[in-house]
Amino acid sequence: MQASRARLFKEYKEVQREKSADPDIQLICDDSNIFKWTAVIKGPSETPFEGGVFQLAFSIPEQYPLLPPQVRFITKIFHPNVHFKTGEICLDILKNAWSPAWTLQSVCRAIIALMAHPEADSPLNCDSGNLLRSGDIRGYQSMARMYTRLAAMPKKE
Amino acid sequence: MSAGDPAGDAGPSSRGGARAGVAARPRRFPTAAQPEVMRAAEKDDSYAAHVTEACRDAFRHLFGTRVAVAYQNEIKLLGQSLYYLLTTGSGQQTLGEEYCDISQVATSHGLPPTPARRMLFILYQTTVPYLAERISSRIVSRGIYMDDSQLDNHHESDNPSRGITESSTNTNESSRSLSFSMLSRLRSKAQAFWLWVVQKWPSMLPLGQDFIQLAIRTNLMFFYFEGLYYHLSKRGAGIHYVFIGKPMNQRPRYQILGIFLLIQLCILGAERLRRSNLSSIASSINQISSGSYPSSTGRSVPVLNEDGNIISDIRRGKAVDLASGSEASSSKSKCTLCLSTRQNPTATTCGHVFCWNCIMEWCNEKPECPLCRTPITHSSLICIYHSDF
Ligand SMILES: [Zn+2]
Ligand SMILES: [Zn+2]
């Protein structure tokens, strides 16, 4: 508990210092609870998620960093490795391949990488996975782009 | 709903004497029992959360997700204030109170609370927690920024003397009134106090939280006994409830819970007394180690000293290095697991170095190197006693 708190404080400090280092990731710690974080990430360019702004919710266990943080998408996203309803993310480093050398910041980076490189063989969103596996790249991309427009873009008009 | 019945039903044991006098006067409604008060509070919480959620949605649509996330605390404040202003503030029952057939009264004569009292309650309920949280988090972040505080200071600064000159010039420019010297003196005083608070805060924060926890628990205990004020805010505003529904003859009482809470509080108190000896020693050592660094530099004991292991660092005089932020050396000898300076550097067979505790704990979890995933065993870890990094 104390160790995790100390480490999260370090990460918080690091995030504040490097605020401008990675403009695609904005990590915000809950004011009252250091075990709850929110991240706002930008969809990577040249993917159907380009232009979208996605919100992630981090819930960090007390045994962190021995156990991985629990991360899920708040913003709806059409992606084979993200559960469409719950936002749960299927990513090995958040499960059995976790290493304590990962930080919240690098987890965000990994999630952005996952958005750019979907893994169709371990789908949480079967529709999306099936589109990719059947080779219908255009279908996948247009669906993903549509949901990015619908859910992840600030409405201007 | 007769006059005689409620006296027996609702009389809190602690006020037995006072009640006998009141009972002679005709009183129509019994004091609400704990179950109703609690159920009403739960209902109100969930309705207030609904309003907050709606506000958040509105914000998200109007200003985008980023703004909504950045101002989520303010939105919460807005939602709660809206809910209580529209219900209690306008002199009506809240939805929860209506559901449970209870109504607010302020005095023992059963009169409804005055508007001023209601506003006081709303302030206590919504704004005070918000402000407390706000100020606390602000001070914590000030503490964290102590090293690089030049980045974003508006009126506070890391140097008291600089702060004073700054503030006095500010007032000079903005207000050309005669009372400016007094104002600036006031400001500099506030400034000094603020600095003092920022420096002391890391050690005070857990204490303060403990105190609030204790206050809430004590309040709950009293509530279980006398059944008057479920929230501290209601106690502060002096608003309690009467039951206006159909009288039931059998209403559960929560005294037994109060007794348990009392026991718990006693045990906690005893433990605190026992520990206070220890912590007073620790804090005196703290003072000594930070005393050698003049407070005029604005640098306090590192923020992290709210957890035990860094405090122990201070005793060894290592955290000074940490706090003074000698980036070059500290980044080189940092442990990638706790992100702090390595304690008892320990090497794996693959050549990566961590703290002894960090890598041992991880090795219990999973026997592989956190950085390169080479398999490791407990016995292959080597603590590098004679290194100088
Ligand atoms: Zn370490
Ligand atoms: Zn290694």
Kindly summarize this structure in a few lines.
Chain A is of the alpha+beta class.
Assign an overall shape of chain A.
globular
* Helix and strand pattern of chain B: HHHHHHEHHHHEHHHHEEHE
Question: What is the CATH domain class of chain A?
Answer: Alpha Beta
In the CATH hierarchy, the architecture of chain A is Roll
Instruction: Enumerate the strands of the largest sheet of chain A in spatial order, edge to edge or round the barrel.
Output: 1-2-3-4
Structural class of chain B: mainly alpha
Question: What would you call the quaternary organization?
Answer: heterodimer
Give the helix level of chain A as a range of percent.
25-40%
Low-confidence stretches of chain A: none
Report the uncertain regions of chain B.
1-24, 147-175, 288-330
Q: Beta fraction of the residues of chain A?
A: 5-15%
Bound compounds, each kind once, are: zinc ion
Q: Number of DSSP helices of chain A?
A: 4
> Structural class given helices, strands, pairing of chain A?
alpha+beta
3D structure, described in words:
The complex is a heterodimer of chains A (157) and B (389). Chain A has helices spanning 2-17, 104-116, 126-133, 137-152; strands spanning 25-29, 36-42, 53-59, 70-73. The model of chain A has no long low-confidence stretch (mean pLDDT 90). Chain A is of the alpha+beta class and 157 residues long. Chain A is built from four helices and four strands; from the N terminus they run αββββααα. With 389 residues, chain B is mainly alpha-helical. Among the domains of chain B are: 34-148 and 202-277, no CATH class; 345-383, Herpes Virus-1 (2-Layer Sandwich), CATH 3.30.40. Chain B has a three-stranded antiparallel β-sheet. A two-stranded antiparallel ribbon of chain B has the order 1-2. The longest helix of chain B is centred in the middle third of the chain and has 47 residues, at 180-226. Chain B is elongated. Classes of the chains: A alpha+beta (157), B mainly alpha (389). The interface between A and B is medium-sized, with 31 and 34 residues. Bound molecules: zinc ion (ZN) (2 copies). The site of one zinc ion (ZN) has 7 residues of chain B, from loops. Chain A: The active site is at 90 (glycyl thioester intermediate). Chain A: Keywords: ATP-binding, Nucleotide-binding, Peroxisome biogenesis, Transferase, Ubl conjugation pathway. Chain A: Its EC number is 2.3.2.23. Chain A: Residues 3-153 form the UBC core domain.
